Amino acid sequence: MKVLIADDEQPKLASIVDWLSIFAPNVEILTSRSVRSTIQIAISRRPELILLDMSLPTFDIAQGETGGRPQGFGGAEVLRHLEFHELLPKVIVITQYEGFESKGKHVGLRELGEELRGLHGDSFVDCVYFSAVSDEWKLQLGEFISKMMDEKDADSAD
After folding, report:
1. Domain total in the chain
2. Which of 38, 42, 60, 113 is most buried as measured by Cβ atoms within 10 A of its Cβ?
3. Crossing angle (nearest 10°) for helices 10-23 and 136-157
4. Which tens digit of pLDDT belongs to each residue from 32-63?
């Protein structure tokens, strides 16, 4: 299985890569750090799973650059582009935020998950809250990935 991890925060990205390489050592891990690079890699490499940060800059950030306009819902833009290009990888949002501000209203992770599921159907799996001080995210992510791998194995056996 090919997994794309889209995150602009280096410590978080490294934690996810390290955990995934231990949890699923046979998985091919790709990484991206912005909306644009995530879309480009998704189109060219066709991952089966994307672990997507919701808050991404428009472009990759080089030294001395801003990466373009910060996007609080950059992950939502990635999801729209995936549908436009008729790509249907499974997507799990993994974020350090317990909620987001949208049009002056607070949106919690549960509400965000329900909204994204309504917009993107079976492609969207769920939201996972990442915390550097807790391993709960690893348990949640592990359950989702194990289920995906089991389903893939069952489909291969048919």
Report:
1. 1
2. 38
3. 50
4. 999 999 999 999 999 999 999 988 887 666 55
Q: Please, what is the end-to-end C-alpha distance for the chain in angstroms?
A: 18
Distances (CA, A) of 23 to 19, 31, 85, 127: 6, 17, 30, 19
SS3 assignment, position 156: helix
Beta partners for 30? 4
> Which structural domain range is residue 89 located in?
2-157
The CATH number of residue 70's host domain is 3.40.50.2300
Half-sphere exposure at residue 11, Cβ-oriented, CA atoms within 13 angstroms: 5
Residues 6+ apart with CB under 8 A from 1: 24, 26, 27, 28, 48, 49, 148, 149, 152
Strand spans (E) along 18-135:
28-32, 49-52, 56-57, 70-71, 90-95, 99-102, 105-108, 124-129
Please check whether residue 76 is in contact with residue 84, taking contact to mean a CB–CB distance below 8 angstroms.
no
Structure tokens at 50: 């994307």
Which two structure tokens, joined as six digits, stand for 116?
Answer: 């994204």
